[in-house]
Design goal:
Elements (H helix, E strand, L loop, with lengths): L11 H12 L25 H11 L1 H5 L18 H18 L4 H10 L8 H11 L6 H16 L6 H8 L10 H24 L10 H7 L3 H16 L9 H19 L8 H17 L6 H8 L5 H10 L3 H12 L7
Helix pairs in contact: 2-5, 4-5, 4-9, 4-11, 5-8, 5-9, 6-13, 7-8, 8-9, 9-11, 9-12, 10-12, 13-15, 13-16, 14-15
C-alpha cells in the first residue's frame, strides 16, 4: 500500500511486462530486461519496449521502400513474384510461429524480422555486391540495416531502437551470432523463407520444376512448398522446446543446407532470373561514380552528414544509393546518363 492507503495503479505497459514474466520461457528476452536505447526515453504507457520498436520499424520510410526492391527477380511484372517486402513479411510470419511455439518474446522477434532487410540495395544481392566492391569500407546489407535504424531514418535521428533489436538485425545472416533466441528465430526463418519462396517463384517463372529438385532433399523435406515449410518449422520447434538453443535436427539441417546450395547453383547464379544482373550492376556503378564526383547532387540531408557530421563521402553515397528502390535507381540513371529528346 502507498501513502494514504491507495494501491499503485499499473500502466497497461507494466501489466503486459508482468504477463511476459509470468508466461514466457526462462530463455525468453523480457522487455523489462532490455539493455536499453542509445538515447534514454520516457517509456510508453501502453507498449513494452519491443512492441514500440516493432511499430517504429513498420512506420518508417525504409520499410515502405522494400515493396519496390528486388528479392530474386529484377522488377518482376507478374503479380505474384516476391519482392523484398513480401520476403520480409514471410520471414516475420515464420519467425513469429517459431517464437510463439517456444514461448519466446514474439514482439522482439517481429521487430527484428521486420527490420532485418531495411538496408538492402536496389536489385537485390547484385546491388549489394557492387557497392561492396566500390566502397573502400565494404558494404554488407545487415550492417546497413542497422545504420538505417541508428542514423539514416528520420533525417539523421534514427529510430533509437533497443539494443536487442539492433543486435538481431545485425546478426541475421548465416554467419551471424544473435545474442537472443528471438534473433536466432529470425536467422533461421530468413533461410526457411527464401529457400521455399524462391523455389516457388522459380517454378512460376519456368526455371525449375518440382521434379528437378533432387529426390534426396524432397524425401526428407517434402515435395511441395507447403510440405517443406511445415517440415522445417515443426522440426525446429520440436527439437528446441525447453532448450537454451534453437536448432533443426541433423538430417533436416543437412537437407536445408544442400537445398540452399542447389538454389545457388541453379537459380541465384547463372539462371535466366539473373540475365539482367549485369545491367543492374552497371546502373549502380554509374550512380556511385557520379555521386562521388558530384556531391552537390546529393539531397541536403546527405550533405549534412558529410559536411557537419564528418561522414566519409563513399559511405554517404552508399547510404543514398542503397536506399533507392529499383525504379528510382533506374529513373536517376536515365535522368543522369540518357540524352533527352529535344522539345520544340
Amino acid at each position: 500500500m502507498q501513502a494514504g492507503g491507495y494501491k499503485k495503479m499499473f500502466t497497461i505497459r507494466e501489466q503486459a511486462e508482468a504477463r511476459e514474466k509470468a508466461m514466457l520461457s526462462p530463455y525468453a528476452s523480457l522487455s523489462v530486461n532490455t539493455r536499453g536505447r542509445e538515447r534514454n526515453e520516457k517509456p510508453c504507457e501502453i507498449r513494452p519496449a519491443y512492441q514500440r520498436d516493432r511499430d517504429r520499424i513498420l512506420h518508417c520510410k525504409a520499410f515502405r521502400r522494400l515493396k519496390h526492391k528486388t528479392q530474386v527477380f529484377l522488377c518482376p511484372q507478374g503479380d505474384h513474384y516476391r519482392d523484398r517486402l513480401t520476403h520480409t513479411l514471410e520471414v516475420s510470419q515464420i519467425a513469429r510461429t517459431i517464437s510463439c511455439a517456444l514461448s519466446l518474446n514474439e514482439s522482439l522477434t517481429e521487430a527484428i524480422a521486420l527490420g532485418h532487410d531495411l538496408g538492402h540495395t536496389p536489385f537485390g544481392h547484385s546491388g549489394e555486391h557492387v557497392l561492396n566492391q566500390l566502397n573502400p569500407g565494404g558494404f554488407i546489407h545487415c550492417d546497413q540495416s542497422v545504420r538505417v535504424v541508428e542514423i539514416l531514418e528520420k533525417k539523421g535521428q534514427g529510430l533509437n531502437l533497443t539494443w536487442e533489436v539492433r543486435d538481431g538485425i545485425r546478426n541475421h545472416r548465416t554467419s551471424g551470432h544473435p545474442s537472443t533466441l528471438e534473433g536466432r528465430c529470425v536467422q533461421l526463418a530468413d533461410k526457411i523463407a527464401y529457400i521455399n519462396h524462391d523455389i516457388d517463384d522459380a517454378e512460376r517463372a519456368g526455371i525449375l520444376k518440382e521434379d528437378d529438385i533432387p529426390e534426396e532433399y524432397r524425401r526428407i523435406l517434402g515435395s511441395s512448398t507447403k510440405e517443406r515449410l511445415n517440415t522445417m518449422i515443426c522440426d525446429i520447434v520440436k527439437n528446441s522446446i525447453g532448450k537454451s538453443q534453437i536448432n533443426p535436427t541433423g538430417d533436416i539441417e543437412w537437407a536445408m543446407k544442400n537445398l540452399r546450395a542447389y538454389m545457388f547453383r541453379n537459380v541465384y547464379t547463372g539462371s535466366i532470373a539473373k540475365s539482367e544482373e549485369g545491367k543492374a550492376e552497371s546502373v549502380i556503378r554509374s550512380l556511385y561514380d557520379y555521386y562521388t564526383e558530384h556531391l552537390e547532387s546529393l539531397p541536403e540531408e546527405y550533405l549534412v552528414m558529410i559536411y557537419h557530421r564528418g561522414e566519409g563521402v563513399e559511405r554517404v553515397v552508399c547510404d543514398y544509393i542503397s536506399g533507392m528502390t529499383d525504379q528510382y535507381a533506374m529513373a536517376k540513371y536515365t535522368e543522369l546518363f540518357i540524352p533527352k529528346l529535344w522539345q520544340f
